[in-house]
Amino acid sequence: MVVLNRIYTKTGDSGETALGNGTRVAKYSLRVESYGTVDEVNATVGLARLHASDPMDGQLAEIQNDLFDLGADLCRPDMARDKDAEYTPLRMVDAQVKRLETQIDSMNSALEPLRSFVLPGGSALAAHLHLCRTVTRRSERLVMELASLEEINPAAVQYLNRLSDWFFVASRIANDNGKADVLWVPGKNR
């Protein structure tokens, strides 16, 4: 159980923070940037939820919880030492990725195929979901960069990749099942 009885600790005043295994690193380290951007995704999901109703609001709530799981996974380096940890570290699992895939397939079955790229916009919910999508893509790029240097849980990377797809398909659902999508018209304003 997490207990937060002091919000400020002053331990980060020197520009360092603690990872999940206690290691101190610079606050600008790639690992901290990676899970910090996952936290930013979560904040954008909170904004999207202001405009969502069920079942999408419930799905977004699940995603927010998953994003905390993902942050916990990313803040804990050295997966090879998980078995030696005082407690079993929280890691993303394939079932979380599969749940997103199932939801994407279900939402996408209600949509007509696209014949153009979609511009971010339409309804307020769709616009917020596009923001979620783009911040998720940035998060994925950072995690992939980290994965080029250190071992990262493959399910964490897969989750981020599916999540941006989820946000895209959900934005179309939020635009009257794609009927209110704002489509790109190449060269329209030349």
UniProtKB/TrEMBL annotation:
GO biological process terms, semicolon-separated: cobalamin biosynthetic process
InterPro entries assigned: CblAdoTrfase-like, CblAdoTrfase-like_sf, PduO-typ
UniProt-listed Enzyme Commission number(s): 2.5.1.17
GO-annotated molecular function: ATP binding; corrinoid adenosyltransferase activity
Protein location: Cytoplasm
Cobalamin adenosyltransferase-like domain span: 7-173
Catalytic activity: 2 cob(II)alamin + reduced [electron-transfer flavoprotein] + 2 ATP = 2 adenosylcob(III)alamin + 2 triphosphate + oxidized [electron-transfer flavoprotein] + 3 H(+); 2 cob(II)yrinate a,c diamide + reduced [electron-transfer flavoprotein] + 2 ATP = 2 adenosylcob(III)yrinate a,c-diamide + 2 triphosphate + oxidized [electron-transfer flavoprotein] + 3 H(+)
PANTHER family: CORRINOID ADENOSYLTRANSFERASE, CORRINOID ADENOSYLTRANSFERASE MMAB
Family to which this protein belongs: Belongs to the Cob(I)alamin adenosyltransferase family.
Record-given protein name: Corrinoid adenosyltransferase
Lineage: Bacteria, Pseudomonadati, Pseudomonadota, Alphaproteobacteria, Rhodobacterales
